[in-house]
Design brief:
With 269 residues, this protein is mainly alpha-helical. It is built from twelve helices and no strands.
């Protein structure tokens, strides 16, 4: 991975207020994924399928790319006794291992674009192959994390066991209700787009420096479409800042990006 020794300011210079998140915003972020899980079953039970189908889409977004991501980086400043069970539970409702996610994602931060960065391998692939990569990515990340020694292994093993039970339960319940099986299928299929949304779009494996290996995005249209989450470059430079403060971080970094001659990608305006 290229060095990031460039005229970027320290966190003290940028402002340590970027580390802070209000209690209300933190609570809402933590509760929303569980609420969406419950809402799917409520909407589906009433036959409100458009609303029901929207729930897994938002759930995938608000876990892997948002709140679970904060728990992976421990940016919500929660005590370990709370952060770790929340990471476990939040990813389990998406049928993923939260602690496998942490191991492989932190490895990505230190190794991209190295060959051993499994999470971001799609950055070096054509789009068709990247789509295919997503179908097996979560399984490969799980077993990659499982092979590594560390205190995370007990979490990963337990999470894998619970996921297996949840999937088995969704199949076993088919004589009575199809909803758990539909939910499971939607959550698994939702993870297939991760190599496109979180790797191929924001990364450039051919970049010579850390600030050119991740693309810079700006503009109102993209901000709305991505719900203010297309700040992957900013995140790579300052991974200790929670997602709630990425827009403000981007605003403060814009003068530095301009000095480096980085041209942001925009959609219309």
């Amino acid at each position: 991975m290229a060095s990031s020794r460039v005229p970027f300011p320290s966190l003290d210079e940028l402002g340590r207020d970027l580390l802070q998140v209000s209690v209300v915003r933190r609570a809402v972020s933590l509760m929303m994924p569980f609420a969406l899980c419950g809402l799917f079953f409520m909407f589906a039970a009433h036959g409100w399928w458009i609303l029901a189908l929207a729930c897994p889409v938002l759930l995938s977004f608000l876990t892997y790319g948002s709140t679970s991501h904060d728990l992976v980086h421990r940016t919500l400043r929660l005590p370990s006794w709370l952060n770790e069970p929340l990471l476990c539970a939040m990813e389990l409702i998406a049928l993923r291992s939260g602690h496998a996610y942490r191991v492989t994602h932190l490895h990505h931060h230190t190794r991209f674009p190295a060959e051993d960065d499994i999470e971001a391998a799609a950055a070096r692939m054509p789009i068709v192959r990247a789509i295919a990569d997503g179908m097996t990515l979560q399984y490969r990340l799980y077993f990659a994390a499982l092979k590594k020694q560390g205190s995370h292994r007990s979490w990963v093993v337990g999470e894998g066991a619970v996921i297996t039970l949840l999937l088995a339960g969704s199949i076993a319940s088919l004589p009575w209700t199809i909803l758990p099986a539909i939910y499971s299928g939607l959550m698994i299929a939702g993870s297939w787009v991760f190599p496109i949304a979180t790797v191929l779009i924001p990364h450039d494996a051919g970049g010579e420096h850390e600030w050119t290996q991740t693309r810079l995005f700006r503009g109102r249209v993209l901000s709305v479409l991505a719900l203010e989450h297309l700040y992957h470059l900013e995140h790579h430079l300052y991974p200790q800042i929670p997602h709630h403060n990425w827009p403000e971080l981007a605003r403060r970094l814009d003068p530095y990006f301009e000095r480096l001659g980085l041209r942001p990608i925009k959609l219309f305006f």
